[in-house]
Design a protein that fits this description.
The structure is a homotetramer of 212-residue chains.
Chain A (H helix, E strand, L loop, with lengths): L5 H30 L15 H9 L2 H25 L7 H16 L1 H10 L5 H26 L11 H11 L2 H11 L4 H18 L4
Helix pairs in contact in A: 1-3, 1-4, 3-5, 3-9, 4-6, 5-6, 6-8, 6-9, 8-9
Chain lengths: 212, 212, 212, 212
């Protein structure tokens, strides 16, 4: 059909590619977020449990609920920003595909550090658990920085992407890795504070979306 | 391309955003609904089981099946209504994104209270299990109310959304939180009745879709 | 925008609805098919295992592999036919939404009977396990029949749907429930034969798609 | 509507079919990739664990992390190439549907050999575990070869698909099965080397995408 216009045809193909990249990423984000529930365990008892024993056991699992909510919103907000960044991109080249692949690897693994925190917060092993958790988000935020760097190149940006928007987004994202590093350094001494910093961060980035 | 028409271009962007919001929400709904199966456990035996022992064990798991069916249809019907509401929306602003995020958090966690009911219905701990279940759906229905409130604002509604339709939908949805509260108050005394009220509710909202 | 043409607008809305129904169904089919892998357990040993002990244990799990392959292709072929049927449908009404909901409930639960067969095929409890499996597919095929009946009504069919195609599809699908019933009746006496009938059936429907 | 142009209408239908095939495949790829995380187990201890005991236990799980990363990128790169190949296809016929089905079966099962390697790498049973893993990827690469063979037929190729591109893709893909066979033959003697070959292969195919 378009054999006489190979360039125009290639353009269409790569735009199609961006759509499939976004759809695939959406899938991984949505599945990772939903698999978090598998880390909340149904309490078990030796012998028959009374109703108040079950209620007690459910309440004692608060670290599981806290870890799930923190991870859920961190990933959800990252999905929103992933979406804001890719909206400015015209086509996905190999560089972007790979950086996105590393980000998806980290996103898909989020249920693991979440489960570790859920099991060990409130025990003597909390420092190690929270260090793993915060350190893991250092990795995620570095990947997100690489994605932003890869997306905001002239060769892949949409021609009508606003330079002001790009500058504003860059400015707000760079804070991620250092602040998660602070959380990681805090975790061995004040494990719960590290989770608090992670919570403060997703609320900050959530507020950020108001201006996008 | 559209540098001369930034407003028109932005319109397109936000419409695209609604599509991705719906696709992401669909993903979470579909995964949550399918993960329910993981709560049904294969019966295990000490030593080798006879065929009739396995059949007995499978039948004794009826609370698992009841809990799965109730949760499956409640989430499925909520998906249909989520769809009916968002069909009237022209663009997704930050407010809508967040309210939708809270709803998705609850939807993704549905397998957990379902598993608790599956394990403890028919045991002395049934009151606590069913209170958790019905109370959880109070939370879901409050989130859905917030979504409806956020979607039916002039700034995000589609220009051709019928006011009569909006009034009718509002009228049918507000009953959710109080009726789930009744179920929650019933659960400590008549656990099975609470599940019955939850079942009656999804059948009611299913019937409601007939008029949409 | 389209306030002057409410009818045309509604048309567009309902067509959009069919797309979202298909996308949601695709999600449940894809997730159910992929969750089957969770039923294959990594062999565990008391003490350290030798390489040949692990190889032996992996080979002894053949019922798991057989059950996975049978369920995978049965669901995959049903997805293809779900797709062939819905391609002929112009709009999704409430009737179709519900019948499709029942089908999705069964599809999402497929990993459970598959896991039961995987664990008990080759044990004295195989008759009960295979009866559950084949009986479950009676339920699925009845739902599929209801879907076909609901889709092939004048009110929802696309205007250009060929009557010859519809007749041919109806003819090939009605065999499902009785043949799965035969498999169910066979299972208590010849459990492996019941799985064989289920395998023969997906191969038959797979061959059927050649003419669509 | 298109009753006067049945041929053109059928064309549209089959193009639609390709889209749904891609979307369904994307779903299976995305879910399989995300389920890999379920194979990483949270360490458990008898009695209360200290922080350093948890840190130790987490580090000792390195085979789990290695297996996850290898499988994640192998599947991700295969998804990219699946996408590159299907972009050249105009319509999905039954042959392509089935070959794609076999590929999806293998993709959906990837978490199983990954979990086996995660548990037995670094134990005396590593040879059996790595032979299973590499042998499994022989199967996957054979399926991918069949997909390429099925996609690059005149009857389904897009009219503007470049013959040079097709030749180049064919040339780079055929190396898959023999190289995975080498890895499989290596595994009984040098299990870790087999995983190394698998890693080298996904890096090679990743580099390949640079030219597509």
């Amino acid at each position: 059909m378009a054999t006489a216009e190979p360039a125009a045809n290639r353009e269409t193909s790569t735009e199609h590619e961006t759509t499939r990249l976004e759809a695939f990423s959406d899938g991984v984000f949505a599945i990772a977020i939903t698999l978090l529930v598998l880390e909340i365990k149904v309490p078990h008892f030796e012998g028959t449990a009374t109703s108040s024993a079950l209620a007690d056991a459910l309440l004692k699992q608060w670290p599981s609920y806290l870890a799930l909510v923190t991870s859920f919103f961190t990933v959800l907000i990252m999905w929103v920003h992933h979406h804001i960044v890719l909206r400015l991109v015209r086509r996905a080249d190999v560089n972007l595909l790979f950086v996105n692949g590393f980000l998806l690897l980290f996103i898909s693994v989020v249920p693991f550090p979440t489960a570790v925190v859920a099991e060990y917060l409130g025990t003597p092993a909390a420092p190690a658990a929270c260090t793993l958790y915060a350190g893991f988000f250092v990795g995620i935020s570095v990947c997100f920085q690489l994605l932003v760097g890869s997306a905001f190149r002239e060769t892949v940006l949409a021609p009508d992407a606003s330079h002001a928007t790009i500058r504003r987004l860059r400015r707000s994202y760079w804070a991620g890795p250092p602040l998660y590093l602070v959380a990681t350094a805090t975790a061995p001494f004040f494990p719960l504070a590290a989770i608090g910093i992670c919570t403060a961060l997703w609320i900050f980035w959530a507020a950020m979306t108001r201006e996008c």
